Amino acid sequence: MPFAVGILVNPVAGMGGSVGLKGSDGAETLRCARERGAVPHAAEKMARALAAALPDMDARFLTAGGPMGEEVLAACGLPYKAVYSPAGETTGEDTVRAVRAMRDSGAELIVFAGGDGTARDVCAALGDEEIPVLGVPAGVKIHSAVYAVTPERAGQLLSRIVSGEARETAEAEVMDIDEDAFRAGRVSARLYGYLRVPLDRTRMQNRKSGGSSSDARDVSAIGTWLAHEMKPGRLYLIGAGTTTRAVMEALGLRGTLLGVDAVKDGRLIAADCTECDLLRLIEPGNTSAVLSVIGGQGHILGRGSQQFSPAVLRALGPKNLIVAAAPAKLDALFPSPLRVDTGDPQLDAELCGYIPVVTGWAASRMARVER
Question: Strands (DSSP E) along the chain, which ranges?
């Protein structure tokens, strides 16, 4: 009998990212996201993963009805059996019930598209069971180590698992943060449990790691140098993170730790910008974005910064991206590359290659970027 794969999509995962909400947990957050014009992307990311796994994958698919998996499998022309049907607007409880229904129907692997909240629900469903899972990144935060680095890498790994080439697994941490604290500029991460994931260092991401006190001097030097190098009359979009916050501190401005701020001639033009704000503010040929590197994972785009959407990045142009990281953060990543996962595979390909990374006062090093 063909290998049984459970396919699960959290339809609302990641909807809060581009509109500056820094997450999608809770009915009120989703309502606000929709009012701001947010649209779902999780199904499209699952479709990308499945496309990367085909056409040689011999599997049978178990899924949940409607937008929780059935629709994307039907759109991909794949045979499936729906073993759970949500009653209406989906919730975390639907994820739990759907995963358990797939398990009870014989799923040998659960592939799910979502973010850290979805991973928590999958963890709650499986408990200490040994069924492996594979996360397709579709959320905002994605601190957990249960996700592939991109949807395409997830698909490649799925194909290898089904064929029997990659059956070795290991425990990986499921992390999540307090989104209310996150929106207030405080990162409060918690370990919720472990899930068993495929053992593949090139396709699976690590959990997010924080900076150390030894990085503080380097980060301060980075911020001071980038502030010193800002050109009069040029617009700068300062991305999320403690490294980029140092730029705002060097300018004497109060920044949005986990959002995107716009600065020009030493003045704060706009704070905590959404994708639409950035598209309105960008001055073609006269705007730069300052980005940091996510510790432990290496992402510069696509994790926690969905305001920098493909449309925003194309309006900016790849030559107008400034990346900064403390040397210790880059050393900890080596030999893994920096990563991009913007949601647009063609744009990701254009962003790949070697780029300079600012590492201190008048200091930089070249780093490889991959998708």
Answer: 3-9, 59-64, 80-84, 109-114, 133-137, 169-177, 189-198, 235-238, 261-264, 267-270, 287-292, 299-301, 321-324, 338-340, 353-360, 363-370
